[in-house]
Specification:
This is Acyl-CoA dehydrogenase family protein. The chain is an alpha+beta fold and 385 residues long. It has eleven helices and ten strands. Strand 9 and strand 10 form a beta hairpin.
Amino acid sequence: MRRTVFNEDHEAFRETIRAFIEAEVVPVYDEWFAAGQAPRDFYYKLGELGIFGINVPEEFGGAGLDTHKFEAVLYEETARAGVQFGGSGVHVLLALPYIKMLATDEQKKRYLPKFVSGEEMWALAMTEPGTGSDVAGMKTTAKLSEDGTHYVLNGAKTFITGGVHADRVIVCARTSAPTAEDRRFGISLFAVDTTSEGYSIGRKLDKLGLRTSDTAELAFVDVKVPVEDLLGEENKGFHYLGQNLPSERWGIAFGAYAQAKAAVRFAQQYVQERTVFGKPVAHFQNTKFELAACQAEVDAAEAVADRALEALDAGELTPAEAASAKLFCTEVAHRVIDRCLQLHGGYGYMNEYPIARLYADNRVNRIYGGTSEVMKSIIAKSMGL
C-alpha cells in the first residue's frame, strides 16, 4: 500500500535526520543509556538542526509551518535506529502548543527565540505524587502576592519528563479552590524559571524504559513567579490542558506504531542472521508466520496513525478519535514488540540488542498520556454508553 501522508519535503527531512542520528547519536548512545540521560549540549545540536522551530512563527526564528508531519518522521527515524532524543519530545509536543496558544506577544518574544535554539528547554509539570489521571485533584498552589507583582508557588510534582535539564517548566497549580459545581475550576498555568529561589529538582527517577530521557521529581517552596509568567487566564488551566490532549495522544500513538514497525525490522534482520540446527531462524515456518502476523498488525497501525495525523493537521482530531488511535496503536505495539523479542530468543533479553530496549521503552505508552482504561472510557462516552 502506498502511503500518501508524506511529500518530498518530509522525505528530504527524513534523510537529514537519518544521517544526523548515524553521525551524532548512534556512536554515543550507549553512554547516554548508562548515564540515564542525553547530555545538555545535545539539545543545542537539535536547535541548530532546526527541529525545535518547525512549528514556530518565522518572526521568532522558526520555520513558520503548522504541521505534525515532521514530528512523525522523527518518531519513525528514532525508532528505526533504536534511539531516543532524550526529553526533547516534551519540549516540542507538549510545551510548544501551550506557548503558541496562550502566550502574549510579549511572552512569545521572551520565550520562543530561546525555545528554538535550545537555549531554554521546556517541560510540563502536571502529575503529583498523589494524583495521576485525576488532574483536578492537584494540591500545588500559587497564591497572588499582596502587591500583585508575583505568585508564590508551593507544592511538588513527579514523573516530569525533561525535568532535570529543563530551563522553564509549565507548572499547573491551584490559584483558587474548586467550586461545588466544578472541581476542575481554579487551576492555572505558569512558565516557571527553574533557576528561581525555592525551586528544586529531587530524584532523577530510575525508570524501566526511556532510559535516556531524564525524568524527575520537582519541589516548590515559596517560589516567586512573576505575574508576567502566567500563561493564559487564571483558573482556566484545566480547559487549556484538555485542548492539547488530542495532539499529545496522537504523538504517543504514532510513536508506538513507529516502535512496532522498528521491532519487525530488528526481528527480520536477526532471524536471517541467526542459525539454529544448522539453518537460519528465518527458514522455519513459525518464524515466517509470526513475522507475517506482526507485519499485518503494523500495516493496520500505520493506517490508523496516518489517519489521525491527517485529522490533527486539519484541526479535526476529536478527543475520542485520539483516544481510539492511542488505544489501538499502543496495544498493537505491545503485542508486536513482545513477539519480535521472542524471535530473538535469549539475546532479546539483553540490553545490547535494540529489541530489549524497545520492549522496555514501549511499556509506558499504555500508561502516560492517559491509561488504556481511560482511553476506553473516553471512547465509550463518545458512543453514548
